[in-house]
Amino acid sequence: MFRCGIAYPRCRWILPLLLLFAIIFDIIAIAASSGWVEDEDAKSHYANMWTHWRGRNDNWTAKSLMEYSWAQAVAALMIIGLIFLIIAFIISCIALCCTLNLGLAPLIGGLVFLTVVLQIIALIIYPVKFNEDLIFEGHYNYTWAYGFGWGATILAIGCGILFCCLPRYEDELTGLSKTKYIYTSA
User: Fold this and answer.
1) What per-residue confidence (pLDDT) applies to 152?
2) Alpha carbon distance 75, 86 (integer Å)
3) Which of 31-35, 51-55, 90-94, 133-137 has the highest mean pLDDT?
């Protein structure tokens, strides 16, 4: 007889793992040396969260974006969001992996949603202000490191929703409820 069901006690490791992936994506986005924005094929202008470069061939000049208040705000929001994600990850490991303390799940969900708000604001401010202040002509693309920032934010949205819904499944996570099978065959 074949039965298919969800093993909830094993699923409680998945949420901290997803938060860890969001942290890794955030670190990649924040620490990338290039890859937030570039002109066509990065021929004359490209940038990361901290610096932008202009030039041709081997003759590039770097200029800090931290001269602009919007870039400082973007950096601060992304770093504060990363710190909140790390705190949420540590609390989730304690709440779900070491012991089962689902009372902390709404706190973790709140921290993660706060991270989401901060990072969405940062990821919207960056292209708007970059386009206003630094792009004069040509076609620009927001590339891989900027995408990692959005990837971390999307993962955080999913984790926040799951952490807020987690207390509903306390019996399943502790193993006190009867297993519900999705499909059974005779």
Assistant:
1) 95
2) 16
3) 90-94
Poorest-pLDDT segment among 24-28, 59-63, 151-155, 169-173: 169-173
Confidence of residue 6 (pLDDT cuts 50, 70, 90): low
* 42 DSSP assignment: G
Output b/e per residue, 19-39; b: 16+ Cβ within 10 A: bbebbebbebbbebebbbbbb
pLDDT of residue 186: 61
CA-derived radius of gyration, the chain: 21
Secondary element (H or E) of residue 163: helix 144-165
**Residue 121 confidence class, pLDDT cut points 50, 70, 90:** very high
Q: Where are the alpha helices (DSSP H) in 5-104?
A: 8-11, 14-31, 69-92
Which stretch of DSSP H or E encloses residue 116? helix 105-134
Q: Nearest to residue 162, comparing CAs of 55, 77, 88?
A: 88
Helix axes 69-92, 105-134, angle to 10 degrees: 160
Please name the residue that has the structure tokens 């009867």: 178
The CA dihedral of 120, 23, 115, 38, to the nearest 10 degrees, is: -20
